[in-house]
Amino acid sequence: MREHYDVVVVGGGIHGVGVAQAAAAAGHATLLLEQYETLAEGTSSRSSKLIHGGLRYLEGLHVGLVAESLRERALLLELAPGLVELKWFHFPVYRTTRRRPWQIRVGLSLYALLGRLGRDCRFERVPRRRWGALDGLVTDGLQAVFRYRDAQTDDAMLTRAVMRSAQELGARLAAPARLESATLDDNGCRFVYHHEGAERRGLATVLVNAAGPWAGRVLQQVSPPQTVRRVDLVQGAHILVRGTVREGIYYVEAPQDGRAVFVMPWRDETLVGTTETPFDGDPGECRPLAQEEAYLSEVLHRYFPRYEQGILDSYAGLRVLPHGKGRFFSRPREAFLDVDRVHRPRLLTIWGGKLTTYRATAAKVLRRVASSLPARTPVADTRTLPLS
User: Fold this and answer.
1) Which of 42, 122, 143, 340 is within CB 3.0–4.6 Å of 347 for a Cys-Cys bond?
2) What angle, rounded to 10 degrees, do the helices at 14-25 and 358-368 form?
């Protein structure tokens, strides 16, 4: 017997569960396939744990992305108060810092403006008399410290909360489950997957490929053959060290190359990240490199020398960025949506995207495939669904 679904999603990261929630909220019969036993086993549990507008993206003039991210941050603060929490972010400026105080002030002013000058988007300059309370931050050569607010989350818990919401709306989760094949026809997609020791077959009106760094591999299972967007996989590593910064999160400049690095509290320890290292291999084998750990340790001890040298733990995740030349930092961070055909698409692939904007991306996916899906009565609005 074949199973029948309006929407089948491949990938149990934040974008996959976001699409499952959006589809189920719109009243569609929805199935999500995740290759691992638990959700968020890939990038969605190996991020910087931030729900933020992306202040640094203003340097690349990604103004639309920052505005969207700030809107989604405000929404998540309302919908998931137990999962998304505002934190103070500190931006120290030294004599050697490449970004001058006036540049930081201009950037923060634009950030506040894009956040519609809301209370949670305001910033201030920390008085010199309070520098000594900033978790042992080095003050030699320090010229100014700005602080503003953004948010932190447990990325894996947030992913699972979104999937629980989708299931409460009727979506089905199969994990671990492996897509074996997908064949497109005029009416949709015939697919085969392996779950609970058995091969299962189904029909889907739309197949959504939300497999993140595995998206290209999923497309290899599709017939007829699909064009695969050329992308770069970029590894971002983090280290966890003993002791915790208590005044909030620090946004510092790596002395080696001027990259932005976050130093943040995490479960009574301190998390430092991230890096940008080209990756070419099996996404399941993504691991921090020794040179990445050394890089992050050097950044930490440049600004917080009192922290011990030992690394308690480390992890690395993969970003999916558009292929190109030059620094990864300048590449767009928006999600790109590819479909198999313009009218009534049967297959949609999500490339890249940010944790913060997962809900907005899912809404765009549903709009993009709306012409293919049957008319259903919506049962909820993801803009009002609480997450716990």
Assistant:
1) 340
2) 50
- Pairing of the two strands 198-209 and 188-195: antiparallel
Return the closest-CA partner of residue 333 out of 236, 238, 266, 262: 236
Would strands 277-279 and 269-273 be described as parallel, antiparallel, or unpaired? unpaired
pLDDT per residue over 275-284, tens digit each? 999 999 999 9
Question: Which is it for strands 142-153 and 50-51: parallel, antiparallel or unpaired?
Answer: antiparallel
Q: What would the two tokens of residue 85 be?
A: 């929490």
The one-letter amino acid code at 27 reads G
Contact 204, 9 (CB under 8 A): no
pLDDT at 147: 97
pLDDT tens per residue, range 286-319: 999 999 999 999 999 999 998 866 899 999 999 9
Spans of the chain, pLDDT less than 50: none
CA distance 18 to 155: 13
Which CB contacts under 8 angstroms, 24+ apart, belong to 188-191? 188/346, 188/372, 189/8, 189/346, 189/347, 190/2, 191/8
Q: Which two tokens stand for residue 241?
A: 């060290």
pLDDT at residue 205 in the model? 98
Cis amide linkage into residue 176, ω under 30° from 0: yes
pLDDT score, position 1: 63
- pLDDT score at 307: 81
Burial of 217 (C-beta count, 10 Å sphere; 0-12/13-18/19+): middle
